[in-house]
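Budget justification aside, the reviewers requested a transparent look at the raw inputs and outputs of the sequence design task funded under Objective 1. We therefore reproduce one unedited record. The lines immediately below are the structure tokens for a 457-residue chain.
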């Protein structure tokens, strides 16, 4: 056993090669380490801590709620906070999504969504239905459980588990910067990407396709990438034409992160099922949901068997629902979504300055969900080799500066491609954005110097 891989304590962490600094507390946009070092949480964990850390109002609410009631099983009881939370979620969702199925996180939300889609067709057409496949995209992440990983297109995350996964079809993403069609405009990329959906449905036979899943703004697989409105308009038309359900994965982009209540709102998108988690509770408790239309709900629950054959012990626990409702109430009262739109635009404008560094290839995003992609050469978009560990360098240089960014890779061919996600708390102030930018600028400068082996001015 190599020494640096020896157990450090009893925790089975994700990465034994990483030194995990111990965090003592969180305060607003900051994480504070045991040694007193302050980090700007520039990615809210993974786009989770939307209202920032250490919120007193939430803490006091949690104490009261636990003293009143912490847990009841959703199969037997209902509690006011569960109902209130569902009502508020529906008010935040695009029109027509009226029924909230609670789960405990993002993977569970997309997993529940595909089981809901499958059961919808079974209830409607009987067990003879052959509809089960879910079309998804390369350069996507929908979760780590077997169903959600089967939809995930990130090759690196799938490889080991491939024999266990359902054989779901994959099409190209609306990833304009690296679009495979060689077209000039985002409009063309969006149209061609949507046309792939129709082709794929026909290739497999519409009678075998239950659903199509997409993120509105891409998260970890190609952060900040989004299409023109035409994409989701065409997706809706194609799904209707071939009797396929449209699932929108807003686990990262939803609940305020992009400067709208849901990112679907930017595109006037109308999904049949919408998956949310992460910012829904700002990380104050694990919670997620799959929200569906009357058509799906009625088919399964009113005209059908009345039983959705799915469920988790902690799903819809009153404490988590109460916390999510409180977080959403704070976001509404304090106008944090409006702030997110304003600060997101300001941040994106400032980030243009980073193009002065030759390793910065593309900057894109909506609200405070922003991606930066790094390249060897700006003109030809050549990615770095994995061995150069550019995403690791930028992460470490950020941490040294006191800034946390969310690194990712593999967007080019499943292996190469370095990028970071910036997603600070959506209540960040303009002055804090300035500070975040200054730290990021120094981190990118240092990384550029390390990679090029020369000073940059
Ligand atoms: C778009 C998207 N879907 C699903 C998931 C899975 O969510 P979780 O990690 O809460 O299971 C994530 C997590 O990053 C995500 O970004």
């Amino acid at each position: 056993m190599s020494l640096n891989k020896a157990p450090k304590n009893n925790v089975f962490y994700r990465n034994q090669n990483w030194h995990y600094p111990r965090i003592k507390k969180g305060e607003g946009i900051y994480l504070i380490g045991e040694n007193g070092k302050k980090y700007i949480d520039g990615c809210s964990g993974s786009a989770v801590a939307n209202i920032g850390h250490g919120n007193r109002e939430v803490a006091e609410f949690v104490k009261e709620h636990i003293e009143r009631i912490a847990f009841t099983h959703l199969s037997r009881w209902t509690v006011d906070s569960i109902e209130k939370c569902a009502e508020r979620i529906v008010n935040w969702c695009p029109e027509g999504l009226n029924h909230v199925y609670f789960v405990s996180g993002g993977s569970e939300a997309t997993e529940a969504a595909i089981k809901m889609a499958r059961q919808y067709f079974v209830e409607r057409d009987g067990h003879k239905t052959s509809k089960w496949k879910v079309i998804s995209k390369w350069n996507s992440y929908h979760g780590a459980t077997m169903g959600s990983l089967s939809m995930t297109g990130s090759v690196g995350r799938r490889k080991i588990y491939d024999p266990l996964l359902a054989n779901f079809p994959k099409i190209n993403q609306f990833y304009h910067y690296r679009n495979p069609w060689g077209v000039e405009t985002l409009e063309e990329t969006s149209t061609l990407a949507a046309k792939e959906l129709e082709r794929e449905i026909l290739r497999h036979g519409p009678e075998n396709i239950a659903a199509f899943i997409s993120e509105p703004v891409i998260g970890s697989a190609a952060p900040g990438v989004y299409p023109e409105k035409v994409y989701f308009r065409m997706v809706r038309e194609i799904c209707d034409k071939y009797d396929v359900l449209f699932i929108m994965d807003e686990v990262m982009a939803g609940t305020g992160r992009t400067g709208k209540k849901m990112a679907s709102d930017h595109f006037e998108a109308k999904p049949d099922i919408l998956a949310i988690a992460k910012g829904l509770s700002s990380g104050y408790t694990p919670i997620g949901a799959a929200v569906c239309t009357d058509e799906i709900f009625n088919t399964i629950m009113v005209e059908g068997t009345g039983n959705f054959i799915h469920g988790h012990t902690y799903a819809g626990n009153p404490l988590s629902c109460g916390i999510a409702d409180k977080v959403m109430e704070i976001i509404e009262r304090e106008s944090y979504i409006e702030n997110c739109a304003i600060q997101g635009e300001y941040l994106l404008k400032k980030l243009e300055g980073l193009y002065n560094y030759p390793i910065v290839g593309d900057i894109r995003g909506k609200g405070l969900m922003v991606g930066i992609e790094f390249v060897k050469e700006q003109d030809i978009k050549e990615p770095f080799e994995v061995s150069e560990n550019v995403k690791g360098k930028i992460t470490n240089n950020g941490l040294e500066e006191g800034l946390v960014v969310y690194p990712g890779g593999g967007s080019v061919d499943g292996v190469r491609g370095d990028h970071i996600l910036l997603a600070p708390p959506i209540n960040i102030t303009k002055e804090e954005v300035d500070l975040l930018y200054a730290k990021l600028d120094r981190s990118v400068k240092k990384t550029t110097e390390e990679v090029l082996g020369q000073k940059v001015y």
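The mean pLDDT is 96. The first strand starts at residue 23 and ends at 27. Computational costs for records of this kind are itemized in the attached budget.
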